[in-house]
């Protein structure tokens, strides 16, 4: 129950301070500043964006099963909390949930995955003089990447395939036999079509979400090993130039950042961008989360920060309204949000 285990872990960590929708937004990788903050504040960033295609009805179905099995219970204001049975499951299975790196690889995992799988399909077919096959992806950028690689290495097809085989064999040996086997079954190669998620679900007697997330864990592992070890030149090819595209800030926040770097005041940024104060504040909070040199004390002084920090530590809560009720009335929600970012740096 990998997927349900992740849900149990998330609900334990948010401590009824967020709704069930917040966890759905986390899993699909919603770019809203609230979701990004939740990921960091509640230490669930490893799950951010790990299941971008998750449908709401499937998510709610999994929650319903957890409620039925008494791993979760519904509390005040329809917020879910973990039961003793859920806590016991986490104690026994915590390691089972390791291996995800959602926030780290949010924008890289999908192109890396498609590059790798299309490469295997292309080179195993062309090495057998089979040039007519239906690509596993219709993503133009991925196809162009593999075409460029093919032009460069088509005369060394066997050599590069052997190198990749060696790298995958070594990398997969660090996983469980079950994880490695499912990954291999998913691969499409010469006259061998990769199993669909439905087929994997039947073959391994697991839910479709569990199969999907097991495969995701494997791709996170492959991304991680090629970063940490120079003995994976082929895997490094598939990750090439993906880091540059992994811009943590939204496009609109980047525009505000450029104005901020040019020393424009808050009011000037509002006027130039023709945006409301709340929107610029959202941008500044987003920037603060990702920029180490953010000037926090341009927007709140040390006394305000210490007051907010004391309330957070006393209440052990990140709920904005709860914090606001216990600090000086002049302290704004914007200052509280910035203080929370600084507190979690």
TrEMBL record:
<dbReference type="InterPro" id="IPR029491">
    <property type="entry name" value="Helicase_HTH"/>
</dbReference>
<dbReference type="Pfam" id="PF14493">
    <property type="entry name" value="HTH_40"/>
</dbReference>
<dbReference type="InterPro" id="IPR008308">
    <property type="entry name" value="YpbB-like"/>
</dbReference>
<dbReference type="InterPro" id="IPR036388">
    <property type="entry name" value="WH-like_DNA-bd_sf"/>
</dbReference>
<dbReference type="InterPro" id="IPR036390">
    <property type="entry name" value="WH_DNA-bd_sf"/>
</dbReference>
<feature type="domain" description="Helicase Helix-turn-helix">
    <location>
        <begin position="252"/>
        <end position="340"/>
    </location>
</feature>
<protein>
    <submittedName>
        <fullName>Helix-turn-helix domain-containing protein</fullName>
    </submittedName>
</protein>
<dbReference type="InterPro" id="IPR018982">
    <property type="entry name" value="RQC_domain"/>
</dbReference>
<dbReference type="Pfam" id="PF09382">
    <property type="entry name" value="RQC"/>
</dbReference>
<feature type="domain" description="RQC">
    <location>
        <begin position="7"/>
        <end position="94"/>
    </location>
</feature>
